[in-house]
Amino acid sequence: MSIRYERDGQTGYLLIDRPDRRNAMSLEMWQAIPDLLDQAMQEDELRVLVVKAAAGELLRWR
Questions:
Q1: Interatomic CA distance for residues 25 and 62, integer angstroms
Q2: Is residue 51 scored above 60 in pLDDT?
Q3: In 1-62, which residue ranges form alpha helices assigned H by DSSP?
């Protein structure tokens, strides 16, 4: 899969990492978002959640 959750201090990141497709979201990636958000919501110290590309453009919409 090409989307993951990471945390650095009080900041969480949903990282989209599919540079070969210019970070276009696949159905599998969209379906993974609820579980990743649940994971982030379990972090009591989390204050902000940022959606960003691991590299390159953020998203390419079809």
A1: 9
A2: yes
A3: 27-41
